[in-house]
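Quick one - inputs below.
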Amino acid sequence: MRVLILQVLGRLRRDKIALAAFAVIALYVLAGLLSLFGVLAPGYATQTGEAYAPPSWAHPFGFDVLGRSVWDRLVQGSRVALIVGFFSTAIAIPVGAVLGLAAGYFRGWVDAFVVWLYSTLDAIPTILLLLALALVLPTGKGLATVCIALGVTSWVSTCRVVRGEAIRQKELDYVRAARSLGAGNARILFVHVLPNVLHLVMVQASLVFVYAIKSEVILSYLGVGVQNFPSWGVMIDDARLELVGRGVWWQFAAATTALFGLVLAFNVFNDALKDALDPKER
Amino acid sequence: MIRFLLRRLLHAASIVFGITLVIFTLFHWVGGNPVYRLLDKSATPEEVARLTHQLGLDQPLWKQYVDYVVDLLTFDFGRSWETKQRIGEMLADGIGPSLSLAIPAFLAGTVISLTVALIAALYRDRWPDRLLVTLSVAGMSLSVLAFIIAAQFVFAFRLGWFPISGWEPGLRGVPFLVLPVAIWVAASLGSSVRFYRAAFLEEMRKEYVITARAKGLAWPRIMGRHVLPNAMIPVLTHLVMELPMLFTGSLLLENFFGIPGLGNMSINAINASDLPVIKAMTFIGALLYIGANILGDILYAVVDPRVRAS
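Output:
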């Protein structure tokens, strides 16, 4: 296992594009952390300039309808995006991995139930399910609800992938060897099989992260996402009317570009990760 | 084949059962008591009691669930809280506009992405391939909201090439649909191209292709006779999985371009918290997904004899 991780890291380190993508992600994380601790963009909610002041040398991102700095709002938005990405992934991946492992390893009625569960969840249109959940959850509209709703709806693909691999792995000799040495099911699953499907889980985690960030924007745009806090979706929603009405393009451009940069970096990194984990693809 | 189909249908039925359970639970829970929403504030307790009885809300929970399922089986979705229309009629009105956007977008998107993917695969690792893959990844990374807002602003508001929004039945509606269809195709192109390219390359790497090359077959014949037919299985999977997107994919587009379809109805219902409509849309969307899955299974079995046997 450790050998595999070292090999993957080694391959990633030689991949310049992957390194660049990783650097971009790191910058976003840094911006998010600094804004979380109030170092960066603490004045995002106060008026610091003229309403709709266009970009200038001193303020290259301009100001919004209330004279708030678009740059400050953008930085706070990265914090929202990363929180949503992180917590949705933190819910979806363990659920998907554990259910997938159990279904693939035990088969029988456990498998039937898990497949039924994810087929059902998968069949319901995601946006409508998310909306219904956002309305139903006791946390009310807001960041926590978005994370929970995205977390409990996006484990399906992970579960499907892990289940498929677990079905293959359980027939291999190392599982039989472990069993003949007296290892229990839990030990076989988590100590032996899990490390062998971990590479798939890692790729899935990266995919869920991107999916969560993109969905947050759409949910916030539809008004069931983040409330009273600058997220990129809220910014795009605000910007839509001012773009058409007044030709104010800078808030729209800023939020769109910030989102694009982060998602692009993740997509590129994800591809590199896939290549590094599966060298025969090269 | 018959046994295979029966098994798939049984599986589908179990999922429909699951969906009714999820929807009933979720909306029973969200809905609270709709009686107070439907009556105004001056309603007397007698009126409240009467409507509660009328809606069947004084029945035990299992009875309400059974009633719900019976209503669904007869395609009776009740009435919208907002417009008081029968939801069945609203659905019938909305399906035409939705399809007039979705079908051209689906067809154009499929043809264009397959062509682009084929070009990329043929030029594997040379500059046309690199360029197309880079563009695809960039396209995948751009939010669909960005596509819609930017294109609508530039091509409809600023340049005035297309009407900003609206819909008309028949051929007169074509000018209204060109821009949304183009946006749909552009927004979905990236991921489709990458998927199809990977599917083509996977086939082209196989040993029978080397054999065909070795015995002197020309590329057009190898591709046309061997690679493409074999690559149809993953392509088919992808296409079938996109079918339900015809329903939800157009949610935002219909709203932005004022097309009176099902997606637009869903968004209006969301904004008005019109739960019966959301509930009906959720169910219809899920049914379409299951239908597409069954269709996919049948197509596989037709295309690939191994599937029938398993």
